[in-house]
Amino acid sequence: MEYTYAVPLQPGDTIAVVAPSSTLAGADVTKGLVFLRSLGYELKIGKSVSAFDGYLAGPDRLRAADINDAFADDTVKAIVCLRGGYGATRILPLLDYDLIAAHPKLFVGFSDITALHTAFLQRCGFCPIHGTMVMSLGRDASEYTKEQFAYGLQHPYEARELPLPPDCSPKTLVPGAVTGPLVGGNMMLLSVLMGTPYAIDPPAGAILCLEEVGEDAYALDRMLCQFEEAGLIDRVRAIAFGEFYHCGPEEKAPYEWTVKEVLRAYAKKWGKPAVMDLPFGHGADNAWLPLGQRAGLEARLDGVRFTLL
């Protein structure tokens, strides 16, 4: 499938900030907005950003309307999500996919936003961005993440080898070299969408990117087993594991498997090129990954090379 690429930003362009999922997080949001303005962009803040309804950033219809309106607004050149949390799956039936497909724009987020990425890629045919969000920019984003984000806004689909932050050394689980479009994101979101009209349906030969936060090894095992039994792994060419932030255990113990042992076991079982420890996910380092864009993955025993094509 051929995907549409959104137009890169220029200095002075307007970015819409929307909250598809959870409500705001105080000072972190203010700091994140200050950072966006420091890059030279104008901001249009959606109503959802200051709304709340329990743990949601306002009612479902409000959050969906913010997204629809941002895509329809010709003055808005990109959309950056406030944060993840929970709520994106609830608004999937309320989005105007024909309108969104007619106005492709840079759409940036991760975590719970995986639900929207998957829908936009499959239903609207344009390439969204798995990347940092406003709350993360104001809280704990590393300089690497901020540089990736700032550069990505103006060079969103540039062919280049993925830069790595200091002390990042991705490791090969199963050697091999492949090319294919990037798909995936947060494991929990991909899991809960299975069996719904919004389930991931990757194009042939895709590279599946997976990351997670705050889950025990057995829960990761459960999701990976589900991906396998649902046929997802059969439909992809390679697996790229990112960060498994606050997932444990990390140390070997009786009657336990570590997170990395679980990843290694499934990768070996599947026999497809696979790597782990790429810099994307919920930690301080979060790369700019254009989903749908073709990439090259070289998984060698002496190192990993990940290239956007």
Give an account of the 3D structure.
The chain has ten helices and 14 strands. It is α/β, with parallel strands linked by helices. It has two domains: 14-155, 3-Layer(aba) Sandwich (Rossmann fold); 160-308, LD-carboxypeptidase A C-terminal domain-like (Glucose Oxidase, domain 1, 3-Layer(bba) Sandwich). The strands form two sheets. It has an eight-stranded mixed β-sheet. Strands 2-1-3-4-5-12 form a six-stranded mixed β-sheet, with helices on both faces. GO terms for molecular function: carboxypeptidase activity; serine-type peptidase activity.
Largest sheet: 8 strands, mixed
Order of helices and strands, N to C?
Answer: EHEHEHHEHEHHEEEHEHEHEEEE
* Helix percentage range: 25-40%
Overall number of domains: 2
Percentage of residues in strands: 15-25%
CATH superfamily of the largest domain: LD-carboxypeptidase A C-terminal domain-like
CATH architectural group of the largest domain: 3-Layer(bba) Sandwich
Q: In whole angstroms, how far apart are the ends?
A: 16 Å
Number of strands: 14
Mean pLDDT: 97
Give the CATH class of the largest domain: Alpha Beta
Strand order of the largest sheet: 6-14-13-8-9-10-11-7
